User: Fold this.
Amino acid sequence: MHVVHNRHRCLADRQPWARAATLALGACGVIGQVLLWRELLALYQGNELTTGIILANWLLAEAAGAAIFGRRANRHADIVRLFAGISLAYASAVLCCWIATRLLRPALGIAIGQPVGTTFVLVTSLGLLAPASFLHGALFPIAGRLCAMSRRGSETESVAALYVWESFGTLLGALSTKLALAAGSPPVAFVAAIWGLTGGVLITGPSTSPQVRRSTLLPQGLVALGLGLLLAATAKPLHRWLLHGQFHPYPVLDDAISPLANWAVLSSGGQYVLAADGQPVLLCPEPDRLGVQTLAHLPMLAHPAPRRLAVLSGGLGGLLEEILKHPCIERLDYVESDPAFLRLYRKFSPEIARRELDDPRVRLLIGDGRRRLRQLEDGVDILWIGVDEPTTLQRNRYFTVEFFHDVRRRLAPGGLLVLALPAHPALATPEQRRLHACVADSLRRVLTHVRVLPGDDRILYLASADRDLSGWTAEEAQQRLHERGLQAEVPLIWPLVQRLHPGWTEWFQREYQVESVAPNHDLHPRATFHALADRQAVHEPRLAAALDAFRQHPRWTGVVAGVVLVSAVVAATLRARRRRRRAPLLIQVATTGMAGMMWDLLVIVTFQSSVGHVQTWIGLLMATYMLGAAIAAAYMGAWSARTRSLRLTLWLCEALLIVAVVALPAGLSAAAQLASSVPAGAIALFLVLNFLGGVFTGALFPCAGAWRVVHGEQLERAAGVLQAADLAGGWTAGLLGPVLVLPLAGVAGTCSLVAVVKFLSLLQVGYMLLREPAPG
Amino acid sequence: MMSRCRLCPRVCGARRLEGERGFCRSPGARLVISAFHPHFGEERPLVGRHGSGTIFFTHCNLRCVFCQNWEISHLGRGSECSIEELATMMIELQRRGCHNINLVSPTHYAAHILKALDLAASRGLRIPLVYNTCGWERIENIRLLDGIVDIYLPDIKYADSRTAIRYSAGAASYPETTRAAVLEMHRQVGVAHTPSDGIMRRGLMIRHLVMPNLVDESIQILTWIAENLPKDTYVNIMAQYHPCYKAFRYPEIARRVSADEYRRVVLRATELGLTNLDSRVTARL
Assistant:
């Protein structure tokens, strides 16, 4: 160690640079993570399962990088050059991963819009992410060594400094991505930022030669900075070039970047394909005539005199046009979430857009549908939900009991709610049946009368609190059509009439009859689980079977998980006792990593359920979490250096986290309730909750590092191993949390599970620490 | 016929009795069905009051890139069942009041179906049998169905073998093989006329899906029908094409059929004197 210190005397007075390098490390990490997460979600047509897999793979490879380089960093002769080399390799890896993500589908011959299986997602996302995330993980212990060599304080304080500055970097990076997304910056700008930051750090780096005063890393730094500037300058053309590669052989006529999606318009034989995040979402200007006619006219004919209507998204592409054919309409409120989509739609489908959006009866509202619903006046006769399936938590918000209550408050007496769920009569999987049963049950709890209108592609639900549509027939529909003088406008052709065939009702009752299924709630998103399981039933039947086993036996699953966990804890404790190692601390850090990730997920999920469009806030949510972690780490780092009761501190960290986790559901529930009346207040409360999550989880890391360092472990090794443990815990939560634990256990159940795990960790840590000699 | 599979015009020769998968990907001699139930989405004369008793077979010999049922036809999602169970399904559908037994994509399971029919008939199956096929059938096999099938419901997808090669896994013989099969079907069951009670019991019902940029082929198909079959042959000209599955790999079919394209095809059908067009076709005019 002494020799290595002599080699790096150059670092002795360069504490600001070491801090800046660690700050850049955090910022580059989160920028790369957000960039690749968005790109991979687009590549796979992602949902929460995909997010979990992406996050888990990132953390897995990062943990491997931290653990491996944690053992090797101190043996390297030139730590500054090692840091520079790996930083450049990380920036290169992000660039290559991003390009590979864009070109993977065309390279493998996977068509635009063609679904891919979960195994494909698992394997390819690991392959795509591993280089970048491994290198980023490797940089963490190396930065730890830089921090240690650049300061005169103790190594204990270095661990805290490393964690603090990395967290601040992550905070700044997260804020930057939030601003960049809001400003519509192309993804290339994210890569450019990573190169620019890397270049800046290297240019200002130390000199390892006494003869020169400038940075030894100047040439590499200049190249990196130059590349960053070049990428920034050519961001738009490069973005376009990659879009053309991604959508080859389709000409890309236009594109737009919004916080909600990356849009592209493809030309296809005189028609246009509007693609969001690489997936076709609308073909225009030729409407899906039969689809929109069915969705528009059946509900309109089910109501004797619909005057005030509302459509929450999904109305463009013909639906509004068909609805507006009915002369009795006085006003139609249409809510669309993404202005970028509206702009492109108006440009490429001007005729229908004019008829739909410029009609004087139409009032266009921009924003989240659920929040806009609360702002509508009461007395809506028919309300359409244009979201087609609760495959994500964002979509699930339109299929919950709480949402249906909001709808009921807006409906006029005799008013109807219209929603559609995909169905395939030839392939009604048990998972699909449960999804329908779950949504239907949630509907019936609020709107008593539900008429189901099955068809070949989707099942329509018409629900009302006080209008019984069970006896409504095709003849009555025909009669209303005549009364409104629409015979010529709307030929009531067989595919439309056949939805009212009485046989369909019997068919639905027989085919979609399942055992009792619990309803869908904002904070217990069961429908998302069923929707995800249904997709797996088609693409990955084995995974669907596993999910079904978890669903059927949640208690046994919990018991088995508990037994495995307790066994692991006991085994680690015994092993540590024999070999006098600090495994229990690793378990404490890993379970804290798990708790932190779960906390973050719960806040994000509840935010998504109550406020919506979390992707526009995710940067800020992550930032507040990291801010909390950084502040706690800074304070606890300083405390660890001077306290004589480190053992008690570790205990207290654990105990406080348990209390906080137990209290979290109350906080989330309060925030969710506040969202309906004071959305800004709810957002603020969510940010505060995530900040607290950062505080309670971030406090542990410097204490654990300090404990290991004062017990004789090298700093970079301690930092690497603890980082790996932290990430491994986060990986577990990222993979299982959004897909399995949260949908099956709900927010309260998830918090209980986390509290139990942390309690076990508390016991084993306490047991071990009592036997460990206190640091001198 | 399955020892070296000759059930469809691909004549892939797979040893299905030994468990080998055919070109259609059906799993050897095993029978896989995705669903069976009364269906109310078929042509009106097949649905009637109590529905068409549909049995959906998995996998397909044609393997089109734009398949709308790709989860069943390509991925083969469904449940394995025995011939005995298939026969029971038929009886159950009859018991529920269905007007017919509608076998969807039956070609590569024809042997299983014949065995099951034997069983079902001995248990009292009496309702008409609908053979709902992609149209690409070996004429030898269709001849074997003479006297068994009551209603043939074939697609005619392409008039040009190059199109069939491109979109249906190299099925070069599709146009001529399908034409020959359709003529044989007509010979067996004749024209499908809807009786006064609205329930079809016998006849040939042709489906044709209009595809983007293939209007000329649609017209060729209708011309062939008008010239080779009676003018009152039942024809359903379908407009519901949308790019699905791998269709976006083929830019020329990666869009909807325009109203103008569909109208041209239907108008040509009426000009050709085809008088028995499905009710939804005439409604769309």
About this structure: Residues 1-7 of chain A have pLDDT under 50 and may be disordered. Chain A has 29 helices and eleven strands. The CA atoms of residues 102 and 730 of chain A lie 27 Å apart. The longest strand of chain A covers residues 411-422.
